[in-house]
């Protein structure tokens, strides 16, 4: 069981969502991880996506740039995280780790996971209304959080209602925060969620 990679056989990810392909092992004394590579096979051709060696992390396939990452500071965790999944990301992914032992011999292990990117029916974002009428003492720190369900990615905007005027945009985050509430902060706030 020494230096065995553990993984899963199949991972499903939603189109435009994100997924993690597990690849982990128990770090063991006397063995140093030398090289980690993630490669992908699709339509009978294999290409290397990611390589970690002494010189650092390298993303070797342009279409995965800014979309893949491997944990940096957790020994034994070589899992691949993919964001903004595209349909062509479906395929067989192989995690290969090469260790060097104290007597300078190399040990290589690999595991393969099949990824299926599925399209779920596109849905508009829906927001469940929160508690209406929130009373908070002046000077307190508070926040309002907007949570929408629907097809990712979802973007958020917070507004403050202005009597007889146009709404005042406040934030483009899901959370609206006040460090110290003032009486003038009293009013009506609403959130807007948007996806494609």
UniProtKB/TrEMBL annotation:
It comes from the Eukaryota. Residues 1-112, 125-196 form the Ig-like domain. One of its GO terms (molecular function) is complement component C3b binding. This is VSIG4 protein. GO terms for biological process: negative regulation of complement activation, alternative pathway; negative regulation of interleukin-2 production; negative regulation of macrophage activation; negative regulation of T cell proliferation. Pfam families: Ig_3 (PF13927), V-set (PF07686). It comes from Asarcornis scutulata.
């Amino acid at each position: 069981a020494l230096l065995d990679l553990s993984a899963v056989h199949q991972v499903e990810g939603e189109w435009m969502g994100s997924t993690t392909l597990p690849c982990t092992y128990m770090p063991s004394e006397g063995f140093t991880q030398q090289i980690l590579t993630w490669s992908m096979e699709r339509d009978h051709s294999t290409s290397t996506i990611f390589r970690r060696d002494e010189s650092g992390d390298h993303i070797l396939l342009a279409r995965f740039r800014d979309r893949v990452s491997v944990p940096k500071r957790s020994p034994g965790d070589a899992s691949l995280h993919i964001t903004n999944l595209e349909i062509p990301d479906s395929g067989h992914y192989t995690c290969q780790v090469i260790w060097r032992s104290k007597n300078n011999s190399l040990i290589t292990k690999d595991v393969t996971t099949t990824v299926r990117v599925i399209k779920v029916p596109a849905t508009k974002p829906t927001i469940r209304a929160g508690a209406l009428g929130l009373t908070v003492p002046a000077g307190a720190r508070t926040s309002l959080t907007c949570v929408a369900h629907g097809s990712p990615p979802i973007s958020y905007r917070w507004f403050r209602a202005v009597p007889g005027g146009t709404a005042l945009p406040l934030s483009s985050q899901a959370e609206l925060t006040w460090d110290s509430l003032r009486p003038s902060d009293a009013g009506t706030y609403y959130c807007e969620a948007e996806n494609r």
